[in-house]
Amino acid sequence: MFEENNTDxxxxxxxxxxxxxxxxxTPAHAWLTLKKMIGKLTYNYNFLENIYVVEIKNIKxxxxxxxxxxxxxxxxxxxxxxxxxxxxxxxxxxFADEIIKYLGKKAGYHLLCEFRYDxxxxxxxxxxxxxxxxHLDTLEYDLYGYDNEKDxxxxxxxxxxxxxxxxx
Length: 168
Known about the structure:
The chain is mostly helical.
């Protein structure tokens, strides 16, 4: 496994989220989603103020960035690289969780599967070493379905009670 600095990891993660969301919606919607998630999480992770998402309005602009610039994110590396890797991992996990809430359970499940594929094995291993567990998130959706949060919690509790009653 290769080591990457926090800036490289965040660049790759943000670009993967952007690609996957824009594939299912539009580049403008993907940009708006990332911008909204960064704004929402900045309260808990103030270093997010040092990450700027370039506005992309259409597919032509997205192709330009993918071909020429390779990143739709500008990151102040002198700040991000000094953040503890476990905190970056918590941020990535929170980011994934928030996007799932924003897009809904069913879309979120599919997004996670595509995100993991787009991320690639090497970066997936890196974020896993940072404490990110996307496998657990997708497993919950496989077990309990795509219902709303309240139904998901109820199904989860019922399943746990079934398991406990079988053990007793």
